[in-house]
Amino acid sequence: MEIQTIKKLEDEALKRNGPDFVRLGLALFFLVAISTYTILSNGEVSNNLFLSIAALIGAYMAMNIGANDVANNVGPAVGSRAMTMTMAIVIAAVFEAAGALIAGGEVVKTIKKGIIDISAFGGNPDPFIWAMMAALLAGALWLNFATMMKAPVSTTHSIVGGVMGAGIAAAGFSIVSWSTMAKIAASWVISPVLGGIIAALFLLAIKKSIVFKDDKIQAAQKYVPLFVAIMSWAFITYIVLKGLKKVWPQVVETLNILPLIYIEVTHKPTFSTALVLGFIISIPVYFAVRKKLNAKHTVIENSRESVNTLFTIPLIFAAGLLSFAHGANDVANAIGPLAAINDAIVNGGISTKASIPLWVMGVGAFGIAIGLALYGSKLIRTVGSEITELDQIRAFCIAMAASITVIIASQLGLPVSSTHIAIGGVFGVGFLREYLHRDIPTVTIEEDTDALHDEKKVLNSYKDNAKSLETKSEKSEADYKQLVALYENIKEQEKLIKATKKHIKRIKKVEYVKRDAIKKIIAAWIVTVPAAAVLAAMLYFMIRGIML
What we know:
The protein has a two-stranded antiparallel sheet. The protein has helices spanning about 1-40, 50-70, 70-80, 85-105, 125-150, 155-170, 180-210, 215-245, 250-255, 270-295, 305-310, 310-345, 360-375, 375-385, 390-410, 420-435, 445-470, 475-510, 515-545; strands spanning about 110, 355. Helix 4 crosses helix 12 (about 310-345), helix 4 runs antiparallel to helix 13 (about 360-375) and helix 12 crosses helix 15. By secondary structure, the protein is an all-alpha fold. The model has no long low-confidence stretch (mean pLDDT about 80). It is globular and about 105 Å long. About 80% of the residues lie in helices and about 0% in strands.
């Protein structure tokens, strides 16, 4: 008997943990494949085993970026039910990989954002390589831990902390550019505040221009095309500035073939050029959306739910474009240090910049996509539904905030984090909802609870009377009439109890943003840089001890 019980427990455990084992197996297969490929394709390099280990760590970092950071791009769309989880993962994985491979191969500074002074290594490549490996592994481990805790954190800050900690361990505190670190610390406040304000302003504008109107159909036909056009303007500007830096000369050459268009060829797109291109594309978008909404076969009901559905397709495009830009930019967090290690091993020296070989780019691109596919759903749910309740309009405003904040901040020279912006946008729409509902007259929860208790007592008395009549052996006509009346009373009383419970729930939901989620996420943001730094320092000394 005990053996059968144990076997049942084992079967149940395998059933529950089976998907986890499959995901782990696929992840390990990818890591081993990357490591093996690196050894085989770099056979002529004397220290190819060390490079293989570095590639494995880079792939591990890329997978963690996919598991944690990409949720910010698609989480709101999933939470609003504009996309299913599967659809979001497929779209994000494709666009992340495309962004990394097509537009992410720009020459990357080996020392991310000038955090440390490489001259402190005295031209000795060994401690530099150890420091980069420690930084990469520390950033990956911290991201892995944050994902397990369902805390969306900045991958950039993770690798920044890793580089800083490993650099201090290798050459002392003087190696760190503290002015750069001060800017990064400032982004902890600037990013979420800017993102939250912009998302809240757009939500307020949509509510006042469409949702709060009596004739929502006419308001939607007038303003939805305008909002979608503004979104396309912002996203094209964002993509040009952040996603097409590497391939910009080729893009300009292609555009100049078209009649009536001439753009001066520059190494990188200028802000004015990106802004003009975005505006040009937004014009046909505006007229296309307006024509669609005014078409006879397009049915719009005079309700908020119907207006919500109008933002579904723009949200899908937003998720794809955000993922493309993210892949083009944040792939450097995984492959920047790996490219530095590759350059130092192959060339036997340290350089301030290092070209990224195609195989290194592939490690980052496919690593992000695989990490997202295997482990991204956890953080997508956190961002999409576990901070505040989202619908398509709110998710649309968060996507707008993500693009516009980056554009504004980049022109003002303000340090921002895409993760913090997106989460700040989620906070912003949640707090605006609380503000707008602050004056709703409600009975206190205590009074409703007392009323619910009395209603249940009445319901129980009805049920007791009905039960006693049912058990009566001989029933008169009056008994049957009374029984029917009791059943009607029971039905009405159950409806009343249900309404009271809903009212209590609505009162409790006046806090639309979950405070526990805020505390956890902010704590993770603050801890990210120092945690990654301490971990990187420890790993550096461990690697150094092994190698010496």
